[in-house]
Amino acid sequence: MNPLSENQNTSKSASTHTRYVVLAALSLGFVLAYLPRAGLAPLASTIKKDLSFDDLQMGRILAVFFAGYFLFQIPGGLLGQKLGNRIALPLLHLLAAFANLLTAVAYSFGLIWISRLILGLAQAGMVPCTAQVIKNWIPESQRGIASSLMGSFMSVGSIIATGLTASLVVPFGWRFPLILFSIFSLCWVILFFLFFRDQPEDHPYTNSEEVNLIGNQNKDKKNDTKQEAQINKSSLTYQMISNRNIWLFCLQLAFRGFGYAFFITWFPSYLQNSSGASVQEAGLLAMLPLIGVVLGTLTGGKLIDLIYSRTGNKYFSRSLVGVFSHLICAICILGAAWAEPFSAVYLISCGTFLSGVGNPSTWVTAMDLGGKHTSVVIAVGNMLGSVGTYVSPIVVANLFTYIKEMNTPNWNLTLYLFAGIYLAATLCWAFINPNQSVSD
């Protein structure tokens, strides 16, 4: 036998790795998406001074993003199903880049308000569309780590946005960073559209071995098209409303969104009030819980894949991971109430690390429950999760007011609240069965 021909046969049988490039492109897309989303908050004081806004106006500008984000979750997911994600994702990023550029050139409250609303509308569809891409491109046994990368790079984008805007605003003004963010997004749009394909078998850089490894559930496209045609919108709506797992899935997202919002809104103020930390100390300490989320999310993805590869049990690898991660998170936050102020921050950060471990469970469970309707399921869940994100700062503001009016302020009430929130998420996860999809 000719050794050369034997080597050629071996190389032909090796799987290509295009799926990893797709993952890298999606991860970069989330980093770029979070630059304008998180980048406006560090610029808020400069914008207020330049355009003569008061605190109330600036608060409305910062909040309106979440209104748009809430409204377009389901339409954004349906857009991916209708147009295909090769078109839908670049289109959404293009609209987001335009909205951010509109913010950069605005000189009035109304124009900035509208631009942030459009940004929320555009970014709402990115998560459900990306979830569908992961389902199509990543083997089931590797979806945990793939989902953890998406969640991690969202927080990475927030961290980069904070540092980059802070370094650029003094020498270049507040408009320049926003323009730069839009340019980055436009470059991503062009490259992603040229490279990406909706199905692995349609990509010029995949081979049959990689397609078989992925185990795409859409191999028989004709049969899938017929099945999807038979399931109309009203039928899908009924299936989702009557599915107990969907309700529990959405509830845990709302609780987790409520909890996460605290760490990106009121946590520095909590540290200043409860421990007497300075503004600078509080800002630095407030980074620790966010770092915990990033590290926990990466850990959770590997853990989910490991458990699933060892047991083949979706409940163990999805739901039980969600149960134990959020339960221990609640215990850590509750324990922080009896710790010294700065030690409490580290306990809370351990809690956010564990909540991050449960993040990939959300993505993977959405794929399990959604089946061919993954983008719609995660859109609904993300929409209700944004309700928790929106409500959290309002509830905490009222709680802070109540605590300050007490004869002896008890700031531990804040920790009790969030320990209870993560405990509620734990109970939701305990009763979610990821084996029952809306397609069944």
Give an overview in words.
It is a single chain. The chain is mostly helical and 440 residues long. The protein has helices at 3-13, 18-39, 44-51, 55-71, 73-83, 85-105, 109-124, 126-137, 143-172, 175-195, 208-214, 221-230, 233-241, 244-264, 267-275, 279-285, 287-311, 314-336, 341-357, 359-370, 374-405, 412-430. The chain has two domains: 17-207, Growth Hormone, Chain: A, CATH 1.20.1250.20; 236-440, Growth Hormone, Chain: A, CATH 1.20.1250. It has 22 helices and no strands. α18 packs antiparallel against α19 (341-357). The longest helix has 32 residues, at 374-405. Residues 1-11 and 216-231 have low confidence and may be disordered.
Keywords:
single chain, 440 residues, mainly alpha, Growth Hormone, Chain: A, 2 domains, 82% helix, globular, disordered N terminus
